[in-house]
Amino acid sequence: MKRHLAPAAALLAAATVLAVPAATHAAPAADVTAAPVLPLAQQPDRAPSYGRASAPDQRLRPGCHDYRFQYRITAPGDGWMAELVLINPGGRRIANQTFVSGEHPRRASRTWTVCDTVTRPGRHTIELRVTNYDGREESEQVRTSAFRLTRR
User: Fold this and answer.
1) Is the pTM of this model over 0.85?
2) Which range in 14-23, 39-48, 50-59 is most confidently predicted, on average pLDDT?
C-alpha cells in the first residue's frame, strides 16, 4: 500500500494561514493562529465514503450458524477491493470476506458463519476496508459499524 505523506504535508503547510488581528480589534494570543481549513473532500470525517457495511441485531444461537450482513461499495471507478472483518466484543477477528470489482456486485447481502465457541453475546464490529485503484495509485479507506448478538 502506497502512502503519500509528502504531498499531504505540503498541502497542510500551504493551507495553514495565520490570522493577524487588526489594530482596532485586539484578540487574545490564542486566536492569532487559525487551524487550517481543508476542502470538504480532504477533511477526515467528511471524506467521500468508499462504502459501508451493516448488520441487523441478531440472536446468537448455540453451535455454528450463518449471520446476515449487507455491504455497499461506492468507490469511484471500476477497480476496487473490499475486505469485511467481523470483530467480536473481545476485539478478536472471527470472520472475514473479500469482494473484488468485476467478480462481485457493488451492493449485496451475504452471510458469514460464526460459532458460539469463538464469540459471546454483545456488541460486534464490522470493519470495512475498501481499496480503490485508479490506474496510477491506490487509496484506502476504513469504516466501521456495529451490531449486537444477543442470547434472547
Assistant:
1) no
2) 50-59
